[in-house]
Amino acid sequence: MNEIELIREKINSINSIKNEDAILLINYNNLGDLICDTPSLRNIRKSYPKDKIILLVRNQTCINLMNNCPYVDQVLEMPHSKDSIDVYYDFCLKLNKYNFKFSIQFVRPFNELYRTYLPYMLGIKKRLGLIQKEYEEKYKKAFTDYYFLENNTTRTQESLELLKLLNIKIDNSKTECFINEKNITHFKHKNYIIIQTCATMECRMWHRNNFIELINKITKKYPDIDILLTGSKNEDDYINNIYLEVNNKRVYKYTDINIDTLLNYIKNAKLVITNDTGPYHFARAFDTKRVVIFGISPRNYLIKEKEKNSIELCGNNRCPANCKIKSIDKDCIKKYKVYGDNYNCINTVSVEDVLNASIKILEEK
Asked: Which phi and psi angles does 348 have, rounded to 5°?
């Protein structure tokens, strides 16, 4: 904390001209979390139409996603959690030209000390954030106002609770996704299903063998529908192995397309089958038909009510015999134990469960 206090003193001692009012928003989580916060961004913009809204995100991929959002003026990559305090000081210097009315951190702080205390370092007087009671002492100076997290609140509702602390009027909790049409590189499929086999966390990934069996059954039942396997470049090897094993001319692999092309494919798909990861949130924002497979993440953290065009399948609390994560030789129960005893094993969702859900939602009028 001494380093943080020192930076705060240094920043506040600099006589910079602050002639532009601004609002600082922080979300250093993954793509899906950014989509969950779009209702908050929309309502902040409605209440503060003339102020510059700056959004700090995790990485360049997040910038690419949010650059098209009409509710923010600038999207910046904030320093990494492992960066030195000197890097944070340099970053604060770049932001010190703004007169920040307030800051909001939309994600749980956990042990992200420097990231959470960044608005404090900048000397922003009103700082709002989410917090768990066990972290209250650690972050007592980081936030001037906070919402205590509750187990019955959805991810989107958490951030909207922060807006209530500012008496910001809330229209609704509908999430949004934004496409820059100029960046779409190609769009050659018309009758297709998207299947997203990967996720950021291994314990959110349905086993590759399940996906292979599912793809084979879908292509057999619907021979006129293309299957698009999507993912990022660093997931290419994993997805390519599935693609090669399926070996079907109606199955295509896309791990080299930009975010706008991916979003356009998701928006126009007949169906998206996915783990609990970014493309699920994209499909939900576009209201594309979707089947989502939940593992360790509880369904009610994202949605409370039954949603149109959506079927959610949840694992139960026991791993089947010899359950493995991904294709690596690791017992899934050992991995889940990191998250406590009440884990949900994604691999207890059967291929038949996903196939039947897909058929049902595809053929719904």
From this structure: -85, -5
Q: Could you tell me which residues come within 8 angstroms of residue 289 by beta carbon, excluding any fewer than 6 positions away? A: 269, 270, 271, 272, 283, 309, 310, 361, 362, 364
Question: What angle is formed at CA 268 by the lines to CA 262 and CA 273, rounded to 5 degrees?
Answer: 70
63, 27, 41: which is closest to 260 by C-alpha?
A: 63
**CA atoms of 1 and 153, how far apart (whole Å):** 31
Complete domains list, the chain, with CATH: 2-165 (3.40.50.2000), 188-362 (3.40.50.2000)
C-alpha 187/C-alpha 209 separation (Å) is 29
Higher-confidence residue: 300 or 314? Answer: 314
Residue 335 has pLDDT above 70, yes or no: no
Amino acid in the structure at residue 322 = N
Mean pLDDT of 220-230: 97
Mean pLDDT of the chain: 91
Beta bridge partner(s), residue 230: 196, 254
User: Collapsing DSSP states into helix, strand and coil, what is residue 272?
Assistant: strand
The helix-helix angle for 236-246 and 208-221 (nearest 10°) equals 40
3-state secondary structure of 303: coil
Angle at 358 (CA atoms; ends 355, 359), nearest 5 degrees: 85
CA 11 – CA 5 distance, rounded (Å) = 10
Rounded to whole angstroms, how far apart are CA atoms 66 and 72?
8
DSSP string computed for 314-331: E--S-PPTT-BSTTSS-B
pLDDT in tens, 238-291: 999 999 999 899 999 999 999 999 999 999 999 999 999 999 999 999 999 999
Beta strand 52-57 with 20-26 is parallel
* pTM for this model (two decimals): 0.92
Query: Which DSSP state fits 348?
Result: G
Side chain identity, residue 214: L
What one-character DSSP code corresponds to residue 296? S
CA distance 118 to 133: 20
Closest CA to 13 of 79, 96, 78: 96
Q: Which of 63, 68, 74 is nearest to 285 (CA)?
A: 68
